[in-house]
Structure formats: C-alpha cells, structure tokens
Amino acid sequence: MLKNSKYGIVIMMFILLLSMAGCDSTGTTVDKKSSSDTQSSTEQQKKSETKPDQTKVTETIKVYFPNDEGTKLIAESKKIKNSGADQYTETINALLEGSKDKKVVSIIPVGTKLRSVKVDKGIAYVDFSQEFIKKFNGGSTGELMLVGSIVDTLTEYPEIKAVQILVEGKKVETIAGHMDTSEPIKRMKDLLKN
Amino acid sequence: MNKKILFVFCILCILLVPTTYAANNRAAYKMNQFSYSILQTNKQNTALRIEIGLNKASNDFKVHIDPAAPKNLIIDLNDIGIGNIKHNISLDGTFAKDINFSQVNNNSKAVILLPQAVAMMQYKVYTMAADKKTKKPFRIVIEIMNKGLDFNVNGVQGKTIILDPGHGGSDSGAIGPDGIMEKDVTFAVAKKVQSMLESSGAKVIMTRTDDVDVYGVNASDRQELQARVDVGRRNPTANVFLSIHANSFTNPQAHGTATYYYAKSPSDGLLAQALQDGMVESGGLYDRGISEANFYVIKYSAMPAALVEMAFVSNPTEQDLLNSNSFQDKMAKGICKGLSAFFGQMRN
C-alpha cells in the first residue's frame, strides 16, 4: 500500500513535468506581426526552438478569405505547424482548408491541390493542380478575390514581395479571362480596405 | 353510283362558294391596296413601312403579340375583309420576313413574321387619310424599326468607340444557375449600345460581331485577349475602349454593378466613374463602385478604357434580369449615358 502510493506520486510528478514541457513549447507561438527589424532574430529563435520537437511548435498566421459579397478580403488567424521552409506550403494549405466562418467564402475551387510553393528573390511561385482553373466559374469579382486571397496571404511574409501563380508547373496568362496573371502580382492592398 | 356522288359534290360546292364569298363581302370594310417600302427615319436609320389600304376609313383594329409565337406581330382587323389582297406576301427580309392575311367571318388577321422576337424590335401602328393627289386610299400603316433608335446619346457624334462584348465562342464566360451564359448577355447589350451610339452619330467598332472567339478557337488566353486589344491598335484614333461583362462570384448572394479601370491616365478613372453612374442610375442595382484592376484588355489598350460588370450572372435574381430584354435596354442606355457624360467632361 505504502509502496503503491510512492509509485503513484513519482508517476504524477513525471506527468506534471511532461505537461509543463509541452506548455513551454506551445508557448513559443510567434506572432508574425513583429516588425521586419526583429524578424531575422525571431526567425533564428524559432529555428533553434523547433529543433528539439518540430511537430509541437505552432505558428499563428493570417490568411485572407473574401467576404460573402465579394467586396473585400477578411483576415482569419490560423495555427500552422512551423517546420521551417515548409511554412509557405502550410500557409496555402490553411487557405485551401477554407473557413468555418459563414461570413466568408472559401474561394479556391474544390479539388484543387497545392503542388508546391517556392520562394526565390522575393517572389513566391505557387503551383496548383489544374482544378484551380478548370473548376473555377468566376467573373471579375471571383477572379480578383481568388488571386487576392492567395497574394495577400503570402505577402504577409515580409520576405515575399510578389506572387507568381502557376498551374501544373506553368505560368498562366489569366484565370477567368480578365486578370493578367502572366507576371508576379504585388500585394493587392485595395482588397483589404474597409 | 358515280353520278350520285358527283351530284352531291356539286350541291355542296354550290352551297359553299356563296358562303365564303359572302363572308368576304359581308364585312363593312374591305382591303383594296397593299404596299411596303423602306424609309429613312434619320441620318443613319431606316424602317420598314407597310401600308394596307381600305375602301373606307376604319379605326377598328388592334395590335397584339402571342406569347407562344413571340416573332409574330399580329393585327386584328375587325369587320374588315381581305378583299383582293394576296394572302401571303414576302417583305424586305431585314425588318420582317412576310405578312399573312386570314379571315374568319367578317374579321381578318394580319400576321407579320419578324426575324426576331417583337420585343426586340420597335413598331408603330397608325392610320393615314386618303390622299386624292396620289390616289391613295385610307391606310393602316405599320412601321417596324430596330429598337433603341429613338434614344439619342448627346455628345458622341464623331467619336469612335471600340466595344468589346466579353468572352464568346468557345469561351462562355461565367455561367448562371439556370445556364445563362455571360457571352450571350454581353453580346446582346453590346449590340444595343452599338445601335444607340451609331444612331447618335458615333462610329462603333466591335471586337466580335457574332458568337465567336476573336483570335480563334485554339488560341491561348493571352492571344484571345490580345486580339481584342489589337482591334484598338488597328484603330488608334478611337476615343474609348469599352469591355462589357457580367460578373460572377462563388457566393450566389453577391450582387450589384461594378466598373474596373487601369489607371494609365486620369481619363481611365473618369470614364469608369461616368459609366458606373450611368449604369447604376439606369439599372437601379447595388452600386459596388469603381476599382482599379490588373485586367488585360484595359491595361494594354492605349486609349481610355473600362470594363463594366453590369450585374452578377451567378446571382439568381440578377441572372434573370441580365437575360431580360428590358434590363438589357436599361444597361445599354446607362452605358450610353455614361459615355455621353465622359465626353462632356473631356470637352470641358
């Protein structure tokens, strides 16, 4: 009986220790709003922190969904796994997941898969499967909101200045016949106004 | 046996002939002349004039349209017999295909077959008194003309406008919940705008005059959009490039009218605002305002350019509007008013 309770206390202490460790790692959630000056240091900090246990480190990011009237983009906070270079992929996947908020619209066509996101010299190259165009029945508003949600979500990262949309690895001239998407697109600030 | 049948047949014929003859004769009035001509209504426009002469003046006629046969313009002529007029007469072919007369008892009916629904055309029916000098009897006159010709757009005389009906051919554009295609709506409105502008003295160049791809069926998206811009390049003195579209969004609730521009010069924004104001005033839909957009045709057109989104084909209510002749008329008039206002501002 006495032996058992001793064991019990040891086990409980061990569990407590574990949960505290868990708290510590989730507590490192980094807010991306931090100014670009401190960005590099926080990046480094993040990297060193992610090394011991990558899967448990999360990051809160901002993704943009169009409102139900298609007049502007609304920011939504999402938590993603922070696994270094793959944060861009995680970010777009968070956008692809859609939103539970009924006041916003999940605009990326159902069935679209993200092939890759690569960042080179300030330009993010986002590559989608063919459903991105084939399943999209958009007018000007739809096209602006679709492109805007991707561009404005990715340009939240200070190191990304513009976004080039690719479909099946190739540049596309337009998504729905209005926008010129043949060149990288800079942050679409007009869509964020209230 | 044979003789008997022949006898009965003869009796029947004798009985029948006078009744039909009498029917034609018992009517108080009788047609006695028919003619048609093409007349010049103003500088640019013509109309078809049909004249049905009567032996005596009568105003007892009524015009109606049968919803089951929307291309038929029907005139009921009460107590008027067909007389010696041919029952089926071919007409000019452009404004009307033919006219068919039929008579039941004392009343006749004239059915004019138009090339498109009567609602798409404009017509006038009136009477003209007998004219002794020209030896013309009292006449019932039917004039048929294209719609919108009476809408005068101020300040567009001498201007050149490039009209780009969005999408077309293999590219349907956005598709509404009932299958209404953007390409058809944009073309219908562009044709109306063309007619209104031309009748007001403007020169209109259409990027497409039918349901076709401008470049070709197998063209890349850029070739197709560039082909539309090229229409403007071939006409560098054109004053405005105007692309007409219907909007679409993932959420069917999205609604209203919007105009996009690419700010190459201050004129682009002015043009967009003038068009937007004209459409909102005329169509009465929610005003989504004007916005800058990186749209191909307005970006690469050298002259002031705008892309109008009349209403949402993805919204069930607005889809029905876009598909209706009356709303298409409103949009066309709104666009013309906008152009008129824009040229007015440019002059000042």
UniProtKB/TrEMBL annotation, chain A:
Ranges annotated as biased composition (Basic and acidic residues): 44-54
Domain of life: Bacteria
Alphabetical list of InterPro entries matching this protein: GerMN
GerMN domain mapped to chain residues: 88-176
Region (Disordered): 28-54
Signal sequence residues: 1-21
Name of the protein this chain belongs to: Sporulation and spore germination
Automatic annotation (TrEMBL), chain B:
GO MF annotation terms: N-acetylmuramoyl-L-alanine amidase activity
Top-level taxon: Bacteria
Keyword match Signal: yes
UniProt-listed GO biological process terms: peptidoglycan catabolic process
Any matching Pfam family: Amidase_3
Entry-linked PANTHER family: N-ACETYLMURAMOYL-L-ALANINE AMIDASE, N-ACETYLMURAMOYL-L-ALANINE AMIDASE AMIC
UniProt keyword annotations, A-Z: Hydrolase, Signal
CDD domains xref list: MurNAc-LAA (cd02696)
Domain annotation MurNAc-LAA: ranges: 229-340
Organism of origin: Propionispira arboris
Record's signal peptide: 1-22
Protein name per the record: N-acetylmuramoyl-L-alanine amidase
GO cellular component, one term: outer membrane-bounded periplasmic space
